[in-house]
Amino acid sequence: MRRLLLIPALLAALPWSAASFAQARSQLGPLCTTDTTPADKMIDACNKIIALKVFRGEQLATIHFWRAVGWNRKGDYAKVITDATEAIRLPSQAAYNLRGSAYYDKGDYDIAIADFDDALKLGPPSGIIFHNRGNAWRGKHDYAKAIADYDMSIKADPKSAFSFQNRGISKQALGDLDDALADINQAIRLDPSLPQPLINRTAIWRAKGDLDRAIADGSEAIRLARDKPPANIMTPPNSVLISGYTHRALAYEAKGDYASAREDYKAALAVVASDAGSKANQATAKVRLSLVTEAPAPVPRDAPMSIAQQPSTPSQQQATATPAPSPSPLASGRGKRMALIIGNGAYQHVKALPNPSSDARAVAKSLRDIGFTVSEGVDLDRAAMQKMTRDFLREAARAQVAVVYYAGHGVQVDGRNYLIPVDVELKPGTGMTEAMIDMDTIMAGLDDQVRTNILIFDACRNNPMAQQVASAGSSRGIEGASGLAAPTSLGSGATLGAGTLIAFATAPGQVALDGEGANSPFSAALSRHLGTPGLEVQQMLTRVRAEVVSSTKNKQVPWSNSSLLGEVYLAEK
Fold it and tell me: In a 3-state reduction of DSSP, which class is residue 541?
């Protein structure tokens, strides 16, 4: 369960006073205002009462509140918000809490927090509302504020299993696995029948590398969710099963049991998702299912990665997977570190770029020098680029840190970003985007809370449907209607989860320069600073930004967006 329902006594008993409306009093009233009524019957009864047009003020607000409860149980959050807004005409904690919860499920966390704030202002202090506001802070990746709200919820109700669970999730996000496990264990002790804490403990076991325990907890959570689906009206429909199948599948995949992973991913996709979190889980399941369906026979978990690739044009394409000569552990001492590096410049149908191949080699060398296992590709056509990307995403299931770097042309179509293979001909018409590599697919494939992801793109994302397809100057954008499609998924949680940083070589609406030397301004600075010992990754990007701004005389300003959960060091302190 993600959030809790608050129903004060004044809303539980609607005053039915007009004798001429005996039917409403004896039949419709109880059906509309009883939380055990099935959702469809509740909505129908409330509709009929509203149609009578005899209620005003508090009575009408109450009917709208209960109809919002019915819509919430069906996962129709737009209608929840509409009815809860009507109910708020007579301000109440319950109505603000319900509407805030609907905004939360839609991924509108700032609006949800505002509603929860208003609910708390109305008083008295409520552990339920503190809990729900904590969820919204967690959705914004503000884990310190989330933990503070869960503390208040637990203080109000020390037996709140969900508050212990969600506080544990927040602690896990901050890297405190032991305290997180203690909170999750307490949630399980308080209510062993709940599947949700077991699902979250599955993620902790995966983070600790104990895949057998992860699978066992995932299996028990799925059994509980099947035998007794969560009955609380504030739990998004199907969310528990989707989460359970996705987390167990990730554990199976990390263990190399692709057959079991495939079945779980299929099961996660077979049910309807209504909330933002479930849709994010299904986006990951869809990509991972395609990866494990194509997967070769599994290799031992600690074996070095090997990517076989057959270039269609040997003179133009190169693809290699090179383990680091002497692997270097994370600053935290955990996990395998992997990188995918692609540089495309020898384009056949748009203006060629001289530097991406040397950019890719320079960045790949910097990452190998600090212990990364690097898969490197230069001037790849669509088939080679797609294979290399998918092979990397498959192997990344075993990584604790994954870095993706791309240099070359990029375009933006309808708010989505695409990376351009060297053989793609950019022409208006159906199927054009299918010939490119969708950045959202890469992000969904990497979405996993137990891994840190760093994605770096030295490419400008422009509209390829403009009249001028070929670039007139030496830039990495397909010239035309400039525009950067900023990744909104970091904010909404719709695609990409916590623990990810995305860096672009240029700011929104600007052009990433290819440069006059052997490397682009951005990649030259990046390769110089990547290996700096003891330099936190966001500080490293700040140095890169300053150097690029200086070298381009303010013509190019690198841009980044982060949901990293703590300090990340690519090179050892």
Answer: helix
Burial of 363 (0-12, 13-18, 19+ CB in 10 A): buried
Q: Does residue 139 sit in helix, strand or coil?
A: helix
What's the pTM value of the predicted model, to 2 decimals? Answer: 0.70
DSSP state letter for 27? I
Sheet containing strand 500-504, edge to edge, reads: 318-322, 373-378, 337-343, 401-407, 452-458, 500-504, 559-562
Could you give the CA distance from residue 536 to residue 279 in angstroms, rounded to a whole number? 32
Render 299-319 in DSSP notation, one character per residue: --TTSPP------SSTTT-EE
Q: What angle do the packed helices 196-208 and 177-190 form, to 10 degrees?
A: 150
Per-residue model confidence as pLDDT tens digits over 511-520: 777 667 788 8
| Cβ neighbour number for residue 268 with a 10 Å cutoff | 27
Q: CA-CA distance, 225 to 246, in Å (whole number)? A: 14
DSSP string, 475-499: BSB-SSS------THHHH-SS--SS
Closest CA to 40 of 53, 49, 31, 52: 31
Q: Which amino acid is at 158?
A: P
- Residue 102 sits at the vertex; the CA angle it makes with 164 and 4, to the nearest 5 degrees, is 30
Q: Which of 391, 237, 231 is nearest to 308 (CA)?
A: 391
State the pLDDT confidence band at 237, using cuts at 50, 70 and 90: confident
End-to-end CA distance of the chain: 40
CA–CA gap between residue 546 and residue 97 (Å, rounded): 45
The pLDDT confidence band at residue 440, using thresholds 50, 70 and 90, is: confident
Q: How far is CA 21 from CA 37, 44, 174, in A?
A: 21, 17, 57
Instruction: Label each residue of 364-433 as H, E or C.
Output: HHHHHHCCCEEEEEECCCHHHHHHHHHHHHHHHHHCCEEEEEEECCEEEECCEEEECCCCCCCCCCCCCH
Residue 348: both structure tokens together: 């056949």
Provide the token pair at 446.
Answer: 């990497």
Distance CA 513, CA 510 (A): 9
User: What is the signed CA dihedral for 329, 335, 336, 337, rounded to 10 degrees?
Assistant: -70
Decide: 258 and 292 in contact? Cβ < 8 Å. yes
Question: 137 versus 322: which is more confidently predicted?
Answer: 137
The confidence score (pLDDT) of residue 479 equals 39
Dist CA 233 CA 43 (whole Å) = 14
Residues 226, 35: Cα–Cα separation, whole Å: 22
DSSP state of 19: G
The CA dihedral of 20, 25, 28, 32, to the nearest 10 degrees, is 130
